[in-house]
Amino acid sequence: MKNTCKVKHVFPGGNTTLGFYSFYDQILPQEEANHIYCIKGGPGVGKSSLMKKVGKKMTDLNYFVEYHHCSSDPNSLDALVIPSLKIALIDGTSPHIVDPKNPGAVDEILNLGQFWDEVGMKRHKQDVIKTNKEIKRLFEKAYDYFKAAKSVYDSYELTEKKSFNQNEFNLLKAAVIRDLFEKIPINQKLGKERHLFGYALTPIGITQYRDTLICNYETRYVIKESVGASSETLMNDIVNAAIIRGLYVECYHSPIKVNKIEDILIPELNFSVSVDNQYNHIEFEYHKEYNLLNLLNKDNQKELIEEINEDKELFEVLLYRGLHFINQAKSVHDKLEGFYVPNMNFEEVDKLVDKIMDKILKYKK
Fold first, then answer.
1. What is the pLDDT of residues 267-316, one digit of tens each?
2. Distances (CA, A) of 267 to 64, 174, 284
3. Are 219 and 4 a contacting pair, CB within 8 Å?
4. Helix/strand number for the chain, H first, E second
5. Helix 346-361 and helix 47-60, axial crossing angle in degrees, nearest 10
6. At the N or C end, where does the chain have fewer CB atoms within 10 A?
7. How far is CA 158 from the centre of its chain?
8. Any idea what DSSP says for residue 42?
């Protein structure tokens, strides 16, 4: 597969209907990594900016990079990965605390706290403590709404599923597996899988960078679905079929239903499979569509449409109420950064970029 896009944008963790959920162990496994930087320091000290600068330098050198965004501020990065060199820079602070697991052999700490004026920070001690408590409160409230939304979502799914032809779906699943893997034999050695989020519940709403996931894939399959006409078991079957054939699979999950995979990438076969639904729309060209909406019995659905619409409306009210509190938490977090920024020596932080680049490029083959 030839890379025509130099970057991929993903989310390694997310605000979900299960609370904060992390796939941080999937960013770059210890066994595969040449080097992992765990970046420590408070909010606004330059962790994300440092990663962006390193990422820009690497793309300028024609390296493909992964930008792992923060679901609580999609303009900030939680991690940067340079896959070909097996290097990662990871924000190691709360709520996704990452510490070195194999210090020296794999990991090292970059402590940006060494560049702040501690005397200046101490002046804001009570303000920092108070602001952190308020951020925590707002996130807890957001997660309460998201969890309530999930209960309604489950009811919504079960109600619409009453109109779904399961037998026809089983036949379709078998046909899709044949389409995708007919010429690929089962392997004695199982393949590997990697799990991340393809989109996120963020302060600016539902946020995705999906076009960057599929950009380099020659063939793109789309499964059109709804909450009750769900592709969940089909996507699981595709992953399992790839794994038993010894293939490497990237799986991108939904923050609304965390166990549900909505994008699958199989680099060795140069194809992607993506779902298209009302909360995660397709905005790119594709080669073949499987439409699960055709498996809904329209007459049965008419009888349940009022109930379905009520579930949908209540789910979305709760979901967007949760998003409101994520937005409020972001506003308060911006105030928290205001205590750190004036007390930081960013010139010293910038000097780290060249040192990191020198070290990274030593892994160039």
1. 999 999 999 999 999 989 999 999 999 999 988 888 899 999 999 999 99
2. 14, 22, 18
3. no
4. 8, 16
5. 40
6. C
7. 26
8. -
Measured distance CA(2)–CA(154) in Å, rounded? 41
Q: 9: helix, coil or strand? A: strand
Report the C-alpha gap between 86 and 106 in whole angstroms: 11
What is the Cα–Cα distance from 222 to 224, expressed in whole angstroms?
A: 6
Question: Is there a cis peptide before residue 203, judged by omega within 30 degrees of 0?
Answer: no
Residue from 245, 203, 242, 204 nearest 221 by CA = 242
Say which residues have a Cβ less than 8 Å from residue 215's Cβ, sequence separation at least 6: 4, 5, 8
Pairing of strands 87-91, 73-82: antiparallel
* pLDDT > 70: percent of the chain: 99
Is the separation of the CB atoms in 360 and 54 below 8 Å?
A: yes
Q: Measure the CA–CA gap between 82 and 363, rounded to whole angstroms.
A: 11
**Global confidence as pTM:** 0.95
**Secondary structure of 124-167 in the HEC alphabet?**
CHHHHHHHHHHHHHHHHHHHHHHHHHHHHHHHHHHHHHCCECHH
User: Helices marked H in the chain — which ranges?
Assistant: 47-60, 118-122, 125-161, 166-181, 210-214, 232-244, 298-340, 346-361
Rg value, the chain, Cα? 22
Distance CA 151, CA 332 (A): 29
Quick one: which of 10, 21, 122, 58 has its CA closest to 361? 58
Q: Which residues of 44-75 are buried (b: 16+ CB within 10 A; e: fewer)?
A: bbbbbbbbbbbbebbeeeebbbbbbbbbbbbe
